[in-house]
Amino acid sequence: MIKTDVIIIGGGATGCGIARDLALRGIPHCLIEKGDFAAGATGACHGLLHSGGRYVVSDPQAAKECYEENIILRNIGEKCVEQTGGLFVRLPGDSKLYRDRFLKSCEKLGIPTEIISSTKALELVPNLNPEIEEAVKVPDCSIDPFRLCMLNIVSSQKRNGIIFIRHKVTEIIKEHGRCVGVKAADQVSGERREIRGNIIINATGAWSHMVAQLAGNEVPLTLSKGSLVITNHRLTNMVLNRMRPSADGDIIVPNEAVCLAGTTSLAVEDPDKIRIESHEVDTIISEAGKMVPHFNDTRVIRAFSGVRPLLKSAKADSREITRGFQIINHGDGMYSIVGGKLTTFRLMAEKMVDTVMDHFHLKKTCETAAIPLEGQEELSGYPLAKRLSNMKNIVCECELVSRAEVERIIKQTGTCYVGDISHRTRLGMGPCQGGFCTFRALGIMHEKNLLSPEQSMYALRDFLQRRFRGIRYCLWGDQLREEQLVEYIYLGILAMERKQ
Amino acid sequence: MSVTQHDVIIIGAGVAGLTAGAVLAEKGCNVALVAKGEPTACLSTGCIDICSLDHEPLHGIGHLPEEHPYHLVARAVIREAVDRFGKITDEMGLPYVGSLETNRRILAALGTFKNTCLVPSTMAAAPQDEKDDLHIITFSGLKDFYPSYIIARRGNASFSTYEAGADTTMGLAANFERHDFLEKFILWLEKIKIPENKIAFPAVLGLESAARIAQKIESSVGKKIFEIPTIPPSMPGRRLFNVLKDYFRKKGGVIYWSWPVSGVEKAKNIVEAVITPSDGRPQSLNAKAFILASGSFVGGGLHARRDTIVENIFNLPVFVPGKRDDWFDSDYFALNHGIGKAGIIADSSFRPKEAPWENVFVCGGILAHTEVLKNGCGHGLALATGHAAAASCLEYIK
Predict the structure, then answer these.
(1) Residue A480 and residue B112: Cβ atoms within 8 Å?
(2) pLDDT tens, B184-200?
(3) What are phi and psi of A250, to 5 degrees?
């Protein structure tokens, strides 16, 4: 049995942010995540560090929070934020009235804007539709959500935080009506652990109603699915937003070598049973294509969906529901934190930990806004220069990941999941989507005696099936061609066993 | 525009195109082949899968759905195509073993077995079951081969690593072609005492003279050796392509290499020429007949758009397996993806159905309803239909 003060359930940005905040305030804690870090909405979003512009007209409070956090994250997270800047692009037919309201609200909230002529905008982003009326520049940035989670966790680990990933909470232990601990099952070995603590924080996003249920508590949620597509290269070096009320496919975000475009917004019931519809992909492409015409003939390498955990609201259109967040005190030692945005994760964590401090009658104030994220200097594989310096024995040709880097991650994490290597190095994230390098990464794990043949076959099957789920709705043109080749490699040349 | 006249123009330099080319060239036709690049044969294991569904390939073919293009080819013609393939590869120094009567197995790089029919002699000694004990030779830094996959599956295998100064299959194959490298390697191999009966190599034993190199190693160490196909680039696939290409040229065939077809010239129901934009000016390649052997999607013969599937050279009608959502099954491993059925439907004379052309023939992977992966019939179908389409074309031009 493990004893701690605070148990955090959920390893998304919120949970990881809470762990960091608790660590910096010296509170013992344990974080339990059923999959990998950023496995839910955190890892399935644009990776847009909002300037607030997107919400400035519809939800000024959320916009204000976004802008303040945007400034903080740029300061503390230099290595996981790319300061791209963003444009709100007004196309012919987009309401000028909206643009005026947009500018007025930005001014009121102190979000810096700059009106840019179409000529100047085309200089900044040459792929833009030359027909645009004008653009407004805002301080949008691009952020790597997985790296963000990892860096928050570093602070926790440095201060003896206990972290369990791939552990699913199966039971919340209650004694005399109070939550006193959890039971969690190791998803790999099946081993069960009991962790005891005084406070349980439910930061499980789209799953928070289910986790709350384990303690007999309720979390009123509205789940909204958002789908995104990824292109095989960067079409813009700035974040592009459409100057109009939020709608499908009106944001394009550059991220490393690729671009993400989305989103859609559809109400869903079960966060574990979501799928992308072909028409969503087509809508995103045609809408993004209005801002960047070249988008229509660019290779789309993957499509994915995330589920936004929004506060329950009577509003029928989930786009109108506030992006603000809420802390629910269930009164039995459990707190649920729901709503919010990736951009405001730190603020959410701060408010959550303030509540915890009140509960413990402790005074130490939050420092997460002032202290830079720890561990940024060790970020693996990130700078291109670092990748290029190790060109010998490249395992993933699309993203230039070397064998040495893969071996380092295996050694560091002892992982037998290709996904863990991908998230840390970008292995398998390029155009072939792991078609070649998965065989190699698993081969290297095999060499380290980490896998039995059954495990490696299982890992390959699991990987290919997951990969396929991501590319299933983008299969035409070159991506279909590549897919046919990969299928031939694994099922033909390598004679993979199809059934266990 | 310069104009060149041939009897027959073949588009595509894969197994189907080169087989058709060889048949025509042997009959004294003035035949030319246009290829925009290397064929998918270069990515393949180099083995000839005839039909892997059944232990007996011909029996397996009998059970294929009636729309499968194999049914357009008479059994006797399949036998003839396979016999000719055997003669060609013998003549060109890349002998194949196996027979149409029964399939055999090769060891795959994951340690699993793969069913196929004809294999290059360098794979002939592959174990047919778990009994044989193996010693695997690998090369330091080689990123496309991991003996541990095989060892983890077979208790009776071990491995040694040779420092070969190259970490790609291409680089290693080039090294093995060098006499001094081979001598030094054999010296090393003789020194390590290998207790096992058979020695396995990733398929890197040379490019031009693989059969001879394998024989030399075998006779030096006195043990059976065999190659395991690797992920692309695949040396056995490239060797297969090379011998078929060389044979075609030897018989008088012409190859226009790296010439993509950009247009066609037609009159009524006859295609008169294909146009290629090569060498800085357009070239018109005129012929009495054309054989389209441009392959499926990977080869570039078929192109999927977001809403449909097209063939871009002659704009032939394509069998499209439903809407985009129907092209793929959600179970990746179902081997039942609708896309495997996409392609050109041919009539019994290998002319595309519902197309106006009387002098265009199609063969190989571009044909509809092949489902190559599911049926294990890639190169076999290319041999059979390449042969049959050439025969039909020959009849037409006479």
Answers:
(1) no
(2) 999 999 999 898 989 99
(3) -110, 15
pTM of the predicted protein model: 0.90
Instruction: Report ipTM for this prediction.
Output: 0.96
Q: Which of A305-319, A421-435, B246-260 has the highest mean pLDDT?
A: B246-260
pLDDT tens-digit map of A369-378? 999 999 887 7
> Computed from CA positions of residues A78, A82, A85, A88, in that sequence, does the dihedral angle turn out positive or negative?
negative
Domain termination residue (choose one: B198, B228, B258):
B228
The residue of chain A nearest to residue B331, with distances taken between CA atoms, is A465
The pLDDT value recorded for residue A381 is: 47
Residue B348 placed within a domain:
yes
B243 and B339 inside one domain: yes
Task: Give tens-digit pLDDT for A43-52.
Answer: 999 999 999 9
- Chain A residues near residue B378 by CB distance under 8 angstroms: 492
Which of A65-69, A443-447, B24-28, B383-387 shows the lowest mean pLDDT across its residues? A443-447
B101 belongs to a structural domain:
no
- Positive or negative, the CA dihedral B210, B215, B216, B220 is positive
Angle at B393 between CA B392 and CA B396, to 5 degrees: 90
Q: Which residues constitute the domain of residue B168?
A: 109-228
The verdict on whether omega for the bond into residue A263 sits within 30 degrees of 0, i.e. cis, is yes
Question: How far off is chain B from A432, nearest CA to CA, in Å?
Answer: 13
Task: Locate the chain A residue with the closest alpha carbon to B375.
Answer: A492
Residue of B nearest to A493 (CA): B45
What distance in Å separates the CA atoms of residue B287 and residue A344, rounded to the nearest whole number?
A: 69
Domain count, chain B: 2
Looking at the fold, whether B325 and B243 belong to one and the same domain comes out as yes
Q: Considering the domain boundaries, does residue B218 fall inside one? A: yes
Subunit contact A493:B234, Cβ cutoff 8 A: yes
Q: Alpha carbon A281 to chain centroid distance?
A: 19
Closest in A436, A443, A461 to B148, CB measured? A443
